């Protein structure tokens, strides 16, 4: 199959690319003819609202952005497909369906996948939290089971905490546990961690800290060969691992496999490639939607300047960021530096910000 060549390919429909494309629309910029947005799905799911969707607080329509209208508004072609391999030397992408694409410039915003136990015999129904389209099918199926289903959520970060509460909200009689390899919400303030632990306790969610699950065998979760639990289903929300093709792409990657980028968001090894969001590695930029959104605003200026040969703007990660964590009942927790709050007003504010983001980026 002959490869098609494009001046610019936007690979992935993550937060940064959504913000960049919306910025082009607002500023009247049109990228080169033949520019494509490559996405595995026709919709982009907004991660900040996913726990609310699981909890029954939002509909699927409220949590997803249709990509076709957004692309059409700035002259970008939407292509449904998923990357199988990237060769940064030949500037070629191969897709899972065997199509091949060549590029002059490539922008990666392809997200990450949750790291999974190294050994898994398939004896437990496993549902990675990403990609969300697949996870959405899993938890919808669980609603058809009786309420005695046992679900374990693996992970100690914000996503694992929020999903455990969301599943409890929609399946109140289910037996839920949250299993962390370290502390719960490590890196957040002590006040927030105490609030979060108290909420889990009040809702009857079993919290297991300092338990690293490294094997799934015979229907059991094992840690260092010791049986931990035998759930009916396992949600994996263990943080971020790179897409498997990144390490073989020829791009300079960090020790974890994420693409190293400069302040201009360009690959350290291949300046015609840019990377943002979870797939990128930049000192001070954490794998969080807050950082990806701000990268997107800068990316909307960097790409036109790069194509025109102008000086590129630099992205400097903010030293501090606000965290808002949904508790699935309409309330939320706030964390900023060493300060934390919780309650219904925080939840209303989070909903206002999330729905505002969706309204601004939805053109359907």
TrEMBL record:
Domain named FAD/NAD(P)-binding: residues: 12-295
Cofactor: FAD
InterPro entries: FAD/NAD-bd_sf (IPR036188), FAD/NAD-binding_dom (IPR023753), NADH-Q_oxidoreductase (IPR051169)
One Pfam family from the record: Pyr_redox_2
Protein's name in the database: FAD-dependent pyridine nucleotide-disulphide oxidoreductase
Keywords carried by this UniProt record: FAD, Flavoprotein, Oxidoreductase
GO biological process: aerobic electron transport chain
Molecular function GO labels: NAD(P)H dehydrogenase (quinone) activity
Organism: Brumicola pallidula DSM 14239 = ACAM 615
Protein's UniProt keywords contain rRNA processing: no
Cited SUPFAM superfamilies: FAD/NAD(P)-binding domain
